[in-house]
Amino acid sequence: MLFGVLALLILCAFLWNYKGQLKIADITDKYIFITGCDSGFGNLAARTFDKKGFHVIAACLTESGSTALKAETSERLHTVLLDVTDPKNVKRIAQWVKNQVGEKGLWGLINNAGVLGVLAPTDWLTVEDYREPIEVNLLGLIDVTLNMLPLLKKARGRIVNVSSIGGRLAFGGGGYTPSKYGVEGFNDCLRRDMKVFGVHVSCIEPGFFKTELSDPIKATERKLAIWKHLSPDIKEQYGEGYIEKSLDKLQSTTTWVNLDLSLVVECMDHALTSLFPKTRYAAGKDAKTFWIPLSHMPAVLQDFLLLKEKVQLANPKAV
């Protein structure tokens, strides 16, 4: 009996793995649109999918990012300048993409553009500190998706939303985590709404990767700029050495940082080319072994583990 159950489990595992390796027949006639291609995941994705033979339309924020990307890719790849927070810009680019893809429609949309914003204790912040990450990471993603949906429905294509482990577990104050929780919610609604049209929607949840977005020095500089304008009461509560201690804590966790950006691009590739794309992809060793499992744990355990890593305040009773 036990042997039979074991054999069945092994067979199921084999079939599941085999199913995940089945690919779509032809990619050379398919168009994909990727946001945030100046650097990081988006840049590597644009170069990777260009080499594979896709017709890549890479959206960059800057002219310099666009120029550098075109210098490294084939003539198949087109770049466009896109600020996802500018609705007129988004509509204009969507119309350009429609003219470009014609009756084939758009096979793939990778919503990758994102910013970190300020990471700081919540009582340091104003509503303005939340605005940029939410406008870029959430509202910009929604606007691009809504404008591209008719083309994706025509092709019965794929949508890949790049979220974060910050969309599963709140690890710091600021607009980044709320924006990624919003992406997760939008992604789930979109996936269910698009299923009837044959459009697959996937979500990628990367852990901590070494990119411009996660630069600890830049994050500390933003935090210092806010510190200078805090009230004397809050400065007394946290203590003058709080930021330096926070940076030391951050740098001591570098063993968690993933250096290989292709781990995320491989998830994008599977979501675009597999006959059976996954609903969610965890990317990075920290996401798979710590953050995602912890997100399923009771809140009391989450709080205990995350608060243990926070810097102790100098005088929290000085209120």
UniProtKB/TrEMBL annotation:
It holds the Pfam family adh_short. CDD domains: type2_17beta_HSD-like_SDR_c. GO terms for molecular function: oxidoreductase activity. Keywords: Oxidoreductase, Signal. One of its GO terms (biological process) is steroid metabolic process. Residues 1-20 form the signal peptide. InterPro entries: NAD(P)-bd_dom_sf, SDR_fam. Belongs to the short-chain dehydrogenases/reductases (SDR) family. This is Dehydrogenase/reductase SDR family member 9. PANTHER family: DEHYDROGENASE_REDUCTASE SDR FAMILY MEMBER 9, SHORT-CHAIN DEHYDROGENASE/REDUCTASE FAMILY 9C. The keyword Oxidoreductase applies. The keyword DNA-binding does not apply.
